[in-house]
Amino acid sequence: MVGTIIIWIATLASAFSVYAYYRSVSSQKRQLGMARNSYGVMVMAVLAASAALMMYILRHQFEYAYVWGYSSRALPLELLITTFWAGQEGSFLFWALCSALIGLGLMSYSRKRGNEAEVMTVYTVVQLFLLVLLIVKSPFQYLWQAQADVPVGTIPSDGRGLNPLLQNFWMIAHPPVLFAGFAAMAVPFSFALAALWRRSYLEWVNNSLPWVIGGTIALGSGIMMGGYWAYGVLGWGGWWGWDPVENSSLIPWLVGIILVHTMLVQRRTGGLVRTNFFLGISTYVLVVYSTFLTRSGILGSSSVHSFVDPGAFAYTLLVIWIVASVIVGFGMVFRRWADLKAFSNRSPLFTRESILGISSAVMGASALVILFGTSWPILSKASLEPAFYDKTNLPIAIAMGLLLGLSLLVQWKEESSGQLLKNSAISLIAAAVLTAVLVFVGLDDVLFAVFAFSSLFALSVNAIRLYRLARENVRFTGGALAHLGLALLFLGIIGSGRYGQKQTASLPMNEAQVILGHKLTYTGSKPTTDGKWMFSVNVEKGGSQFVLEPVMFESEYNNSLMRNPDYAAFLTRDFYLEPVSLEEGAPASATTSGVLELKTGQTKTVGPVAVKFLRFDMKHGDMSGMAGGQDMTIGAVLEVKRGNSSEELTAFTSFKNIEKPEPKTASTKDGKLGFELLGMNVDAPGKGSTIQIAVKGVEEQQAGQSAKSQILVIEASVKPFMSLVWVGAFLMMLGLCIALTTKMNGTRPKQA
Predict the structure, then answer these.
(1) Residues 6+ apart with CB under 8 A from 440
(2) Same-domain check for residues 12 and 152
(3) Sheet hosting strand 603-606, strand order edge to edge
(4) 667 is in which domain, residue-wise?
(5) pLDDT at 73 over 70
(6) Is residue 383 part of a domain?
(7) Phi-psi region of 385 (alpha: psi -120 to 50; beta: other; left: phi over 0)
(8) Cα–Cα distance measured from residue 720 to residue 426, given in angstroms and rounded to the nearest whole number
(9) Distance between CA atoms of 68 and 54, rounded to whole angstroms?
(10) What is the pTM of this model?
(11) Distance, CA of 494 to CA of 545 (rounded, Å)
(12) Are 540 and 687 part of one and the same domain?
């Protein structure tokens, strides 16, 4: 109840702040103080609500539906904290918290630039939407309010717990970073609308550019954390699967990256003014649309990690939020369209402005394709296969690679085609040679060869650019470093995606098999401290040896089998094992008896042992002696196999007469099994020679038979050059961070 009251206080304070800021735009400057104070009250209330929810979680107050639904007493502290943002209601509160704190910085930032009233009016309206949504989807609802069949006052002894797939380190970092990015994208939206409101069409770019870069850093970092999480823990077999929820974060990030480049053009040449307003508004609209897709329940059957239906009221609010953002945002652009036309200009083709404009259009095409595919479940119950995204984005990626290089080879002033060719000669030759090498070693797909060429071209151009800028000042290397990272990422996609190998195999315990050039031996399983089962697989290749330990467990959370892969990372490849199932296998010819009757050359199995009768050993006597009633010693030569080991031994029996044999036990080398020759029939009519063998120690061997007959079914993958994906992603984020520091102090390199 207290938490709900605090949310209402935050909502009312935000609404009053909107009103006061709006009144201060015209002539009521005295309203600014009231607006700021109201905003401060809202921030304090959101902080208090967040602290209250965290306290309820840490104190295991399961009378609250949200606390019961996502936490439990068994969770360690670090995972218990993550339940704050694990569900819809908590994640909305965390988003509101990020947005409130960013707003404090924006308030001070915009005050210094003289546009606080307009910017904060828009930004506080955005915050107000979040808070209204929190009233509808409150994390402070009691369990009996959320579930009609629960008696009033019921306090469960424990909670339902956190989804096992979310019980990982990356749950601590991935969602908060993404939400920070979502919140930051409201800033360029606010600056754009404020600029249109004031009819001040130019300076907003300088003011909002650092915020755009910061937002794209947060979104990009969150996306790559999610990819690494999926690759190493979730068992999806890769780092990106074009899942609709993944895409819904990728789309606003792509538009944010486009906006960074088009803003740089406007800062330098004054061009692309209308484009920047359109993109600045689109970034936030797409964040809201992303929220609608992931939290409306639309993707429930097409995404592995979307939220369920939030209810009719919350669904309606999400739709209103989108429609209002679109109408107000783009409505303002079209209202000022005539004014903005005065800033339009045409740049010659061979200039950096034109190339960056074309690059933005190409990247925008990718965003539109992904947006179409991600939105498909709205029109149809089915989702589009990953192959759709792969095929449509491949030619776009090829063009992007070429444009990444060309944009740095031309100047802001017009360049001749001959000069452009001269500037690009070294990089073109290097890319052609390296592509030829890749084709020679196995790159046999024409389109991927072209993709490799364009990526290598971009890599070469940006490596040269990076070297030259670093000599001038390392603070100027951000753009070149980010572009170089993207080129490496493209090359990693080619290697790991197009030329990866995959094979499903069954691994009987202690039986080595060669899979994808690696010798795999399943050696057994053991329980983990948290009740899961870890399966040990010994891997050998080229003299090196390592152990992979994938995990499988039956989850009580959703009554399904959960799988966590394991992999070994090397410079040029990753070897990846995903568990599929565990099966029990026993040889079809196995017998439970310790006595075998064998014909010459016949093999039978008792317990874990296969026994084959090879021949008689007649060195100590012959059959004629036995026929004459003399004492004779006869041996049966046996081949004994257990797993991969095999040995040969001879079981002897002394015959005083044919009815009283005196067998001597022949033991295996380890002494665990013994064999006695009980009787024989030599050349029996219609049967040939047969013997009767008693096997001792079978009971002890059979005691461990169930474990030894386990068969681990795995999916093994070799993923070439996965390291380029992670290195490329890291360099992209590092380059953006360097660019952020450069743009904030307003410096640029002499070569720019």
Answers:
(1) none
(2) yes
(3) 590-591, 603-606, 609-617, 632-642, 645-655, 661-664
(4) 590-708
(5) yes
(6) no
(7) beta
(8) 27
(9) 13
(10) 0.79
(11) 27
(12) no
Query: Could you give the number of structural domains in the chain?
Result: 4
Cα dihedral sign, 213-183-121-36: negative
535-547 in b/e form (b: 16+ CB < 10 A) is bbbebebeeeeee
Is 590's pLDDT higher than 50? no
Evaluate whether residue 357 is within a structural domain: no
Sequence letter at residue 314? A
Q: Do 141 and 176 fall within a single domain?
A: no
Residue 141 has pLDDT above 50, yes or no: yes
Do 572 and 623 sit in the same domain of this protein? no
Q: Are residues 570 and 697 in the same domain?
A: no
What is the DSSP code (8-state) at residue 344? -
708-718 pLDDT, tens digit each: 468 899 999 99
The answer on 47 and 34 residing in a single domain is: yes
Sheet holding 566-569, edge to edge: 501-508, 710-720, 573-584, 566-569
Q: What is the C-alpha separation between 553 and 131, in angstroms, rounded?
A: 39
Domain membership of residue 21 (yes or no) is: yes
Rounded Cα distance, 407 and 243, in Å: 32
Q: Please, are residues 106 and 120 in contact by the beta-carbon 8 Å criterion?
A: yes
- Terminus-to-terminus CA distance in the chain, angstroms? 58
Asked if 628 and 548 sit in the same domain, the reply is: no
Question: pLDDT tens digits, residue range 6-64?
Answer: 999 999 999 999 999 999 987 667 788 999 999 999 999 999 999 999 999 999 999 99
Max CA separation in the chain (angstroms): 132
Segment 597-647, tens digit of pLDDT? 888 888 887 767 788 888 888 765 544 444 445 567 888 899 988 766 788
Question: Residue with structure tokens 């910017």?
Answer: 119
Report d(CA 653, CA 677) in Å as an integer.
Answer: 6
In-domain check, residue 187: yes
> How is residue 131 written in tokens?
């808070």
Q: Residue 190 has what pLDDT? A: 96
Kindly report the number of other CB atoms within 10 A of residue 264's CB atom.
21
Nearest one of 583, 529, 567 to 719, comparing CA atoms:
567
Which band of pLDDT confidence, cut at 50, 70 and 90, is reported for residue 657?
A: low
152 and 180 fall within a common domain: no
